[in-house]
Amino acid sequence: MSNSRTLTEAQIASFWSDGYAFVSDALTTTQLAELRSDFEGWVEESRIHSDSYGDTLANRPRFDLAPDHTAEEPRLRRVASPIEVSDAYLDAMRDNAALNAVAQLIGPNVEFNNSKINAKQPGSATHVKFHQDFMFQPHTNEDLITVLFFLDDVTLDNGPLVVAPGTHRESLFDHWHDGVYTGAVSPEVESEHLEDTVAVHGPAGSACLMHTRLLHGSAPNLSDQPRTLFISEYRAEDSKPLQENHIPSRYQGEVVRGQRTNRVRCSSYEMEFPEVPSGASFFSQQAKADEPVPSPGA
Ligand SMILES: O=C(O)CCC(=O)C(=O)O
Q1: Which of 135, 40, 67 lies closest to 287 in space, CA to CA?
Q2: Alpha helices by DSSP H, the chain
Q3: Cα(22)–Cα(17) distance, integer angstroms
Q4: 283: pLDDT confidence band, cut at 50, 70 and 90?
Q5: What is the pLDDT of residues 202-221, one digit of tens each?
Q6: Secondary structure string (H, E, C) spanning 268-285
Q7: For the stretch 201-240, what's the b/e string if a residue is b when 16 or more beta carbons lie within 10 angstroms of its beta carbon?
Q8: 66 C-beta closer than 6 A to ligand 1
């Protein structure tokens, strides 16, 4: 793409040291306008629904509504694989300025893994518990990058992404607790890292590139402005998935930069396989962290 964004040597070093990088102008003005317009249409459509709706390859709802959703105050919090129902999202996934930076970091051969929209309407209680993306879908190596495109201005008040710099070089933290996959680290791990977190904010059209092992989460949106992210996950072409995609689409595995090599590369790590979600999104898995643990024999 013409307005290619590339990272400087200093930004590349900072990504490998901190586990994330901020890229401005990751989307063109036209791309941003089209993505926003399609999302606004889905929010309007959601008003006539009282439960999550639509269908995906995984036979789970595509449009995930938060528990406090109403026709008057729609709370569409997740769209799974928007690339399957919108040409604008498909085109942006396949070609955007942030992908050039991804190719610099883990390329030159880059595959698409999965995509979603995470939205927090004004005043929405939706929050994301601290987790590492890799713990949702292990691969043969850890060269995966999650790109979070800002479709709205992200501020300190509207529930920005919060990252714990350098944690991609620490352990893989367990996301199973007392036999339940909660898609989140334990409260102890979270509180150990909370003091050293950084909120990633910036204007609509920018993006945060995040290493798959980086610990991150986000708080509720306490402002009167929406916070919408289009999130697209990419992997080095020689990083092969070890479990089914938790957000499958007919585009998974598509080569978006470089070429197919027919090679596999393996790194050394250990983890317990995650639970593939059965609800509309990982929000229902993360909600399990708040449920009381059943007593033995109950
Ligand atoms: O929506 C957010 O703030 C964070 C998204 C995220 O971490 C995820 O969906 O894995």
Answers
A1: 67
A2: 9-18, 29-46, 87-94, 97-106, 187-194, 282-287
A3: 14
A4: confident
A5: 999 999 999 999 999 999 99
A6: CCCCCCCCCCCCCCHHHH
A7: bbebbbbbbbbbbbbbbbbebeeeebbbbbbbbbbbbbbb
A8: no
Decide: pTM greater than 0.85.
yes
User: Which among 57, 61, 117, 130 has a CA at the least distance from the CA of 86?
Assistant: 117
CA quadruple 247, 104, 257, 84: dihedral sign: positive
Nearest CA to ligand 1 atom 7: 217
User: Quick one: fold of 9-290?
Assistant: Jelly Rolls (2.60.120)
130 C-alpha vs ligand 1 centroid, how far in Å?
Answer: 9
Q: What is the pLDDT of residues 63-118, one digit of tens each?
A: 999 999 999 999 999 999 999 999 999 999 999 999 999 999 999 999 999 999 99
Q: What is the DSSP string of 83-128?
A: GGT-HHHHHHHHS-HHHHHHHHHH-SSEEEEEEEEEEE-TT----E
The per-residue pLDDT of the chain, averaged, comes to 93
Mutation test residue for ligand 1: of 20, 39, 116, 128, the one with most atoms within 8 Å of CB: 128
Residue 265 clears pLDDT 70, i.e. is over it: yes
**CB of residue 133 inside a 6 A radius of ligand 1:** yes
Residue 2: the pLDDT is 39
Domain-by-domain residue ranges, the chain? 9-290
Instruction: In whole angstroms, give the CA distance from residue 93 to residue 230.
Output: 9
**The token pair that represents 24 in the structure block:** 């401005």
Which of ligand 1's atoms lies nearest the C-alpha of 161? 3
Pocket of ligand 1 contains residue 100 by CB under 6 Å: no
Residue that is written with structure tokens 């439960």 in the block:
51
